[in-house]
């Protein structure tokens, strides 16, 4: 879902660490200069705090990813939801994460520039 974003960020010399259930997607991102990992836990471990973690999954999968992610992040980290979530759910997530000292942004992504 975020392959073009990976390409654009890597071209601008940003460190991009990726995980996907689909190993083919991870390897494709690797070819785009991203650092591949085998788990969400490894993504967090590869990034120095304060971390910026961008979740690129459909909106109905965000809570499941957050459940896996939350035990591994620390206060001051920022989580970005790129899954076009309904704003009501995003507001609830933001309040829950803020109470844990985390930053949360709802930045729905759809399409974008071709290159």
Structural write-up:
This protein is an alpha/beta fold and 115 residues long. The chain is 40% helix and 14% strand. It contains five helices and five strands; from the N terminus they run αβαβαβαβαβ. The strands form two sheets. A three-stranded parallel beta sheet has the order 3-4-5. The radius of gyration is 14 Å and the shape is globular. The model has no long low-confidence stretch (mean pLDDT 92).
List its salient traits.
115 residues, alpha/beta, three-stranded parallel sheet, two-stranded parallel sheet, 5 helices, globular
What are the secondary-structure elements, in order, as H or E?
HEHEHEHEHE
Class by SSE composition:
alpha/beta
Stretches with pLDDT under 50, minimum 5 residues: none
Shape: globular
Radius of gyration: 14 Å
The CA-CA distance between the termini, in Å, is 15 Å
- Say how many strands there are: 5
Biggest sheet: strands side by side, in what order? Answer: 3-4-5
Number of helices: 5
Percent in helix: 40-55%
What amount of the residues lies in strands?
5-15%
Q: What's the story with the biggest beta sheet?
A: 3 strands, parallel
Mean pLDDT: 92
